[in-house]
Structure formats: C-alpha cells, structure tokens
Write a structure and sequence with these properties.
mainly alpha; 2 helices
Length: 70
C-alpha cells in the first residue's frame, strides 16, 4: 500500500475483533484448548447458541402475546 491506506483482508478472512472480558475469557480459552478447538470457533459457536436462544425466547413471547389477544 504505497498510499498508506490499510488493505482489504484476504478473501475468506474476517476483521479482527477486540473486546474486554475478564475471567470468562480465560475459562473459555481453556475449555476450547482442552477440546482441541480453535478459540475463535468456540466463541463463535457460543455466540450463535446465545443468539438462537434469544430468538426462540422472542418467538415464544410473541406467540404468548398473540394467544392473549384472542
């Protein structure tokens, strides 16, 4: 990059993320390592599970609300 601008990540790669997490990070890292799993895959799977759970809760709440309107 002769013009000093950052380059685009290589195809198939995502931008790095930075977050501040205490002991939970260390515990999750150790769990991923113990299972022979890449930490990024462990975190992504855990986040996806949480988002799926949230979506199910919202759907259930919406269904309960519509039942109350009948």
């Amino acid at each position: 990059m002769a013009d000093g601008k950052p380059g685009r990540p290589a195809t198939g790669q995502t931008k790095g993320r930075s977050i501040r997490i205490g002991a939970t990070w260390d515990e999750a890292y150790a769990a991923a390592e113990a299972d022979g799993e890449k930490f990024a895959a462990f975190v992504e799977r855990a986040l996806r599970r949480e988002l799926d759970l949230r979506q199910r809760r919202q759907a259930r709440a919406a269904a309960n609300a519509s039942e109350g309107q009948e």
